[in-house]
Amino acid sequence: MLTIRNLSKTYANGVHALNDVSLDIPRGMFGLLGPNGAGKSSLMRTLATLQEADSGSVTLQGADGGTIDVLRDKDAVRRQLGYLPQDFGVYPKVSAEDLLEHFAVLKGLTARKQRREVVDGLLQQVNLWDARKRKLGTFSGGMRQRFGIAQALLGNPRLVIVDEPTAGLDPEERNRFLNLLAEIGENVAVILSTHIVEDVTDLCPTMAIMNKGQVLLTGKPNDAIAALAGQVWRKQVGKAELAEYESRHQVLSTRLIGGHPVINVFSHEKPDAGFEQVAPGLEDVYFQRLRQQARRPAASQPTPAAEAELA
Ligand SMILES: Nc1ncnc2c1ncn2[C@@H]1O[C@H](COP(=O)(O)OP(=O)(O)OP(=O)(O)O)[C@@H](O)[C@H]1O
């Protein structure tokens, strides 16, 4: 559906935000997971035709079966694209209905009756029908994000890009929002960028992990989790011992349970007697990849392409 090859971008300040990024993004939900500064927004903005890459190519399979050169045919992409940016702002004094109607006009829905039908349908789809007359300034974070999805869906896009949409939502709103995305993902490609591992675990049949502009892994979350089987070990340790464990072992994560640190360690063998083997999760995969990248001396870093293949 979307094919990204060797995409690179260096900002004027010298930051390599995208470093030879290659990804295949199919229909359905695709999770793009990475910490702050990984390059997710740079990639999203490039796909959304809002900024230029230095090199590489991106092609989108069009509705007619042809392909669109995303980096060049920007108008063609925009006709097939819905985008919810990270910093989606709304006019606080305007009602949801009026602003969506306004966006619909901008999208080219000029026939009044048809526009009403589309706007009403979207307000129902995102479950804001009862709140449609309310000013957007009175909306909760979750409601604003659902409004953001409604505007992204105007014009029946084939590709929907949502950048960190669940940050700041409470668990109930987050669930509701993710369920909405999953429904949309049944028909179109949805790229969900997030730093929240559970967003991807719960929802995305395919994903990529990104950091420092590089793709560290891409594929199915379950395959990546299965590849770690038998290599994640857990132990409760004393607070004073923690630093030593961190220096001797590859500690993936530390959790305080009842005030005591419990560590997950990556190791091919049982690290010591007190450890028990645990079933890995996507969080272990995520931290293992980030750790692996951090441990490599810069000079011996394999090319991102070779690295992604290792996955
Ligand atoms: N316009 C810009 N000019 C210079 N540097 C930038 C610019 N935009 C982003 N960066 C830098 O590029 C790197 C990648 O940023 P990007 O926003 O793409 O990451 P991200 O994964 O989306 O993180 P976040 O969740 O914090 O937005 C960061 O080091 C960031 O500081």
TrEMBL record:
SMART domains for the chain: AAA
Source taxon at top rank: Bacteria
Keyword ATP-binding: yes
MF terms (GO), sorted A to Z: ATP binding; ATP hydrolysis activity
InterPro entries: AAA+_ATPase, ABC_transporter-like_ATP-bd, ABC_transporter-like_CS, P-loop_NTPase
CDD domains: ABC_drug_resistance_like
Domain ABC transporter: 2-237
Keyword annotations of the record: ATP-binding, Nucleotide-binding, Transport
One family name in Pfam for this protein: ABC_tran
Gene3D superfamilies in the cross-refs: P-loop containing nucleotide triphosphate hydrolases
Family assignment from sequence similarity: Belongs to the ABC transporter superfamily.
Stated name of the protein: ABC transporter ATP-binding protein
Species for this entry: Agrilutibacter solisilvae
Upper lineage: Bacteria, Pseudomonadati, Pseudomonadota, Gammaproteobacteria, Lysobacterales
